[in-house]
Amino acid sequence: MLENIRDILAAAGAALADVVEVSTFLTDMSDFAAYNSVYSEFFGYEGPARTTVAVAALPHPHLLIEIKAVAYCPTRTRR
Fold first, then answer.
1. In which region does residue 69 sit, left (phi positive, over 0), alpha (psi from -120 to 50) or beta (all else)?
2. How confident is the model at residue 74 (pLDDT cuts 50, 70, 90)?
3. What SS3 state is found at 23?
4. Helix crossing, 2-11 with 32-43: angle to 10°?
5. In sequence order, what DSSP letters do the residues of 30-73 get, joined into one string?
6. Residue 46 — pLDDT band, cuts 50, 70, 90?
7. Is 27 in contact with 55 (CB distance < 8 Å)?
């Protein structure tokens, strides 16, 4: 999932380094340690502000995690 966020940002001319906030929704908090490990691979120890919450369910029954990322990338001059 974080690869998808990285790729979407790249298509917009931004990068994971431009992410300023991440909100994560987990259906099972016992998955937090694994999520935290993967998160640190992408953002390191000094990553963006982060909130992780447990939810009873997500829109599709097979989803276990949903991530929302907010990035700030100043506009660039158009050519």
1. beta
2. confident
3. strand
4. 30
5. GGHHHHHHHHHHHH-TT--EEEEEE-S--SSTT--EEEEEEE--
6. confident
7. yes
The residue type of 36 is N
75 secondary structure, DSSP code: -
Q: Token pair for residue 41? A: 């691979």
Mean per-residue pLDDT, 41-69: 95
Q: What is the gyration radius of the CA atoms in the chain, in angstroms?
A: 14
Interior/surface letters 40-50, b for 16+ CB within 10 angstroms, e for the rest = eeebeeeebee
Residue 21: strand pairing partners:
49, 70
pTM summary value: 0.86
Which sign, positive or negative, has the C-alpha torsion 67, 38, 71, 20? Answer: positive
